[in-house]
Amino acid sequence: MKPVSAEQVTAFRRFNRYFTRRIGVLDDHYLGQDRPLGEARLLFEIGDGVSLRELRSRLGLDAGYLSRMAKALQAQGMVRLSTHSQDSRLRMIELTPAGRVEVKEQNRRANVVVAGLLDGLSEPQRAELTGALTTAQRLLRLAGITVTLVDGAAPDALACLDAYAADLDERFPEGFDKDDLVRPEEVSGDAGAFFVAYEEGRPVGCGALRRLEPGVGEIRHVWVSPTARRLGLARRLLAALEQEATTRHLTVVRLDTHAALTEAQAMYRASGYTAIPAYDDNVYASHWFEKRLTG
Q: Cβ(217)–Cβ(211) under 8 Å?
């Protein structure tokens, strides 16, 4: 992957400066209310109630900073802090009736601001901008996802495989038997590799690589959670597996797929895989592919 250019960094920062100024992020009275953006956003994220731990992970906030904001909102009568009924280690936060009124007004004002920004555009221009913003959000989500090499027996790896198996069991007319998943020892250490994709600390995808024979590897169980599909994550996982295969001096990777997984077949073909005769006796496979790797 090519390094990020200075022009790309400059364009991104220029947009950030323009957009934050236009929506009033720098104002201590965001949207004309008596609080800065940080507190306003925290109120919005609380929703129907959540733990401070979840908020800290979701928003990427320092624990001390989050605690100070929560206490400030509590002092203003906007939120209520408590301990989780089943886990005393978890501190919970919920909106008070006054807090719910505040969030409702916040949403109304935000809608007015956005409508005012869009009012100067024609309908085709609004559609163009909406499409561009949707694309920007998709790409920024993808950029924020990390793909990490983990042990095949790690809890997150096993959780992803369970979700993958449940997904296939629903999609395959004949169902899917979990016993046909790779074993942890096949995708760990010298035998292979297992990658988990994380979004905001949560596993949202996986993929495995195992050695078939000298110079030949097999890619298995490329899966993306429904919450992270249509971002391009499957291709990113595939690229990580191919890079790992190259690092392990494998010159060929193979894979198979089910007839029902037409989107997977299309992705493999678009990624340079060519159809080959069956190389295994996988009862779920109807298509087999191979790709030769370059260093």
A: yes
